[in-house]
Structures are given as structure tokens and as C-alpha cells.
What we know:
Elements: H1 4-24, H2 31-50, H3 56-83
Amino acid sequence: MESLMPLLIQLISGAVGGNAAGAAMKKVSMGTAGNTVVGMIGGYLGSMLASGQLDGMVANIAGGGAGGAVLLMVVGFIKKSMMK
């Protein structure tokens, strides 16, 4: 259970970051489900990148939220440009 807790925090904070970015930038939003899934993936990746710079729980929360938001923006811009 101890090794599962950081992963859950990464996924949840990524989902929150993805949905927050989707709410703030309507043009890149992919709907609630899409924002959540992309945010969770970004949360995991962002936490992995932040773990080299920050310690423990801070890396999981901050890296997860930021990673979720950034990945949603990237995927949303790509999707938007492909629709043209």
C-alpha cells in the first residue's frame, strides 16, 4: 500500500490539473473524461520529472498537477490544429 499511495496522488493531482486547464482554456478542453484521462497521464509523467528536483509528496502533488495541465494543453493544441 505504501508504494501505491504516491501513484494515486500523482493520478489524482494530474486529473485535477488537467480539468483545471480544460476549464481555463476552453479551446483545448477535451471534455471532462478526456481532460481527466490526459491529466492523469500527464500527472504521472510530470511527477516523474519533478521527482529529480523536489522531494516526496511535493513532487507528486506539484509535478502531477503541472504535468496534467501541460499535457492537456499540448494534446489540445495538437487536436485543434489537426481539425483545421
